[in-house]
C-alpha cells in the first residue's frame, strides 16, 4: 500500500497542479512566470514542482485578497469544460470598494486608534519627564536656597548697618538731637 502511495500521490499532485495551471489566467501566474515554464517545473520536479505551484499560487491570491479555489472548484471547472459548458464568470462576492469592506474599515479604525494611543502615551511620557525634571530642579533649588538666603540676608543686613554707620560718622551734626530742633 505504501509503495502505491509513493507513486500515486506525486502523479495526483502533478495532475492537479497541471489542471489548475492550465485554468489560471496568464496575468495571475505566480511571480509572473509564463505558463510553459510552470508546466515544465510541475512535470520535471516531481513532488516539489506541484507543491511549489500550489503554495505560490495560494500566496499570490492571498496577497491580492482573492479566495483560493479548492480542489472541488477546479474539478467542477474541468467537468464543465468536459461537458462543453462555458464556465460563467463568478460574481465577486466581496466588496467593490474599500468603503464597502467592513473588515477594511475596522482594520483602519484599529490602526487609527493604535496611533492615537501611541501619541497619547508619548505625550504622557513627555509630561512625566518634564515633571520629573521640574521636581529635580526644585529639589536642587531647595538644597541650595536655605544657604543662600541666610548668606544674602547677613550680607545685606551687614551692608545696611555699615551704610548707616557711615552716614552717622560723616554727618554727626545731622544725627545729633540738636540738629533735629
TrEMBL record:
Record keywords: Membrane, Transmembrane, Transmembrane helix
Keyword Membrane on entry: yes
Ranges for region Disordered: 67-181
Keyword Membrane: yes
Polar residues compositional bias, start-end: 139-156
Amino acid composition bias (Acidic residues), ranges on this chain: 169-181
Designated name of the protein: Cardiolipin synthase N-terminal domain-containing protein
Residue spans of biased composition, Basic and acidic residues class: 67-76, 105-114, 121-138
Listed transmembrane segments: 37-57
Amino acid at each position: 500500500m505504501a509503495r502505491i502511495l509513493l507513486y500515486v500521490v506525486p502523479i495526483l499532485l502533478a495532475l492537479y497542479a497541471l489542471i489548475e495551471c492550465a485554468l489560471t489566467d496568464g496575468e495571475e501566474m505566480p511571480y509572473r512566470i509564463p505558463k510553459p515554464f510552470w508546466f515544465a517545473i510541475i512535470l520535471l520536479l516531481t513532488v516539489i514542482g506541484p507543491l511549489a505551484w500550489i503554495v505560490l499560487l495560494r500566496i499570490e491570491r492571498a496577497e491580492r485578497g482573492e479566495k483560493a479555489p479548492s480542489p472541488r472548484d477546479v474539478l467542477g471547472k474541468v467537468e464543465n469544460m468536459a461537458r462543453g459548458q462555458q464556465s460563467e464568470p463568478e460574481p465577486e462576492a466581496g466588496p467593490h470598494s474599500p468603503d464597502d469592506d467592513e473588515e477594511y474599515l475596522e482594520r483602519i479604525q484599529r490602526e487609527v486608534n493604535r496611533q492615537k494611543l501611541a501619541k497619547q502615551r508619548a505625550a504622557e511620557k513627555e509630561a512625566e519627564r518634564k515633571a520629573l525634571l521640574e521636581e529635580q530642579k526644585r529639589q536642587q533649588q531647595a538644597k541650595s536656597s536655605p544657604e543662600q538666603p541666610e548668606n544674602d540676608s547677613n550680607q545685606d543686613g551687614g551692608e545696611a548697618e555699615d551704610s548707616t554707620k557711615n552716614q552717622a560718622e560723616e554727618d554727626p551734626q545731622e544725627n545729633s538731637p540738636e540738629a533735629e530742633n
